[in-house]
Amino acid sequence: MNELADRAAHISKYIESNMISPSGLVYHTINEATHRAWCDDEIPDIVIYNCIDAPRELWKAGFFNYEDSLMATAEYMLGHLYRYFITKEDSSAKIAKRCFDALKLSAEQSAKYAGENVSRATNGFLSKPYGGADKANLSGEVSIDQYMRTMYAMEIYRDSIAANDEADWINRFLADCAQCWNIHNYSFNYFRAIVRWATVRPHGLAFGLYCSAIGQRANQPTNRYWFDLFLSRFTTLEKELFKGTITDNTAALAVLAMKRLCTLKPRKKNIWIDYCRKIISSAEQAVSDGYGWLFSFLSNQQRDELIEPHWSPQSHRYWNFLRWRGNIRRPAPSLAAAMLDAYDITNEKALIDKARSILECLGRAGYIKWAEPISDRDFPEGYEMLSSCVSGLNTTCWFRTYWQMKYFLQQ
What is the tens place of the pLDDT at every residue in 96-118? Predict the structure, then answer.
């Protein structure tokens, strides 16, 4: 563990020195060449998404700096909470609070948004904060992964070191999130196309169950209907979901939901644990030596399979790069995190060893990238900047997983 401990220290130092935005959010990605946040002139036009629900001036640096910053910040908060549980060092409690404050600011600004996704300002609407937490009201983009990781991290913070006023705010925020999804029929635009989020893929269904269970705890009667509806789809949808493998991020989100459902809906704990095991088993099939393939859910590229780089003839609605098929490795620290969260409810110690083996493969540079091509041919011309993205989510997820593992080993 000494080598991993040294790596964790380097990663923590790197995050603090290079990846913290002015508002306290952890950047989604930064430029590996400068180890700083992206500037607009570093991002070619060909790389940007083409239908973001945000002002055009936020489509470059505003997007690449903040797309998954809520998730990255939530993971970093969890990492320092676990570190605080072990060390009792005030520095980790202060960083966790800084993360809370940044997420809170982003949530409060998001609630002021009114546009294509919600027609009027709505508490519990949590948008991707393009341009920074203080500009979240300008963005109408949401996704269940931002919600799931943020809501989960808020619960852990509330139940550990939160002040009374912070805990009260978190309880209102969680209830508002559930009500927001409820009144919008668990459907929101995703890059300007309607998505019924809780009916697609394992993490969608898992989030729907988790969010509606939160709503029931907040005495929102309609969320009981949603919970029963999602549960009725559980077995039928499950058969389709496990025909192939799923990504590490999908696994991480689904397992977080199952973990919380063991507390929110304990009478069905056996269902949640069984689903959790199947999720992990499926995700493992796609990862080798700590890496999976980027966008394998689109390409169907199998573990260790090398393909001839090419463009798919099919167009893509919101990002042309999703048509590309190349040998691009995706670091998978999220699978290690999923394994530890699964261990927390299954007590299967082999999961700790598997998580450690993934951590050992990643983070030697003191950070983790978003994607790594096998060769120069595996990124298309004009998109090379994507291979220079240091990932806030991957880097903070490694850090969180290390300290969570250490916490479990000391129990």
Answer: 999 999 999 999 999 999 998 99
Contact 24, 45 (CB under 8 A): no
CA atoms within 13 A on the CB side of 234: 21
Mean pLDDT of 217-240: 85
Pairwise CA distance, residues 382 & 379, whole Å: 9
Q: Of the candidates 339, 337, 246, which has an alpha carbon nearest to the alpha carbon of residue 292?
A: 246
DSSP track, 212-244: HHHHHHTT-THHHHHHHHHHHTHHHHHHHHTSS
Please report, for the chain, the start and end positions of each structural domain, with discontinuous segments joined by +. 2-409
**pLDDT (tens digit, 9 = 90+) per residue, 48-63?**
999 999 999 999 999 9
Which architecture, in CATH terms, is 2-409?
Alpha/alpha barrel (1.50)
Q: What single string gives the DSSP state of each residue in 10-37?
A: HHHHHHHHHSB-TTSPBPSEEETTTTB-
- Count the Cβ atoms, other than its own, within 10 Å of residue 236: 8
Beta strand ranges found along 357-399 (DSSP E): 372-373, 389-391
Side-chain-side CA neighbours of 323 within 13 Å: the count stands at 14
Contact 4, 11 (CB under 8 A): no
- Length in residues, the chain: 411
88's CB contacts (< 8 A; 6+ apart) are none
Sequential DSSP letters for 101-113: HHHHHHHHHHTT-
Strands (E), 27-76: 29-31
Residues 18-54: b if buried by 16+ CB within 10 A, e if exposed: bbbbebbbbbbbbbbeeeebbeeebbeeebbbeebbb
For the packed helices 201-217 and 269-284, what is the interaxial angle rounded to 10 degrees? 150
More confident residue, 295 or 65: 65
Q: In 3-state terms, what secondary structure has residue 399? A: helix
CA dist 241 → 47, 201, 205, 401 (Å): 31, 6, 11, 26
pTM value is 0.97
- Return the SS3 of 89: coil
pLDDT band at 368 (very low <50, low <70, confident <90, very high): very high
- Encoded amino acid at 117, one letter: N
List pLDDT tens digits, range 259-289: 999 999 999 999 999 999 999 998 999 999 9
Question: Residue 297's Cα: distance from chain center in Å?
Answer: 17
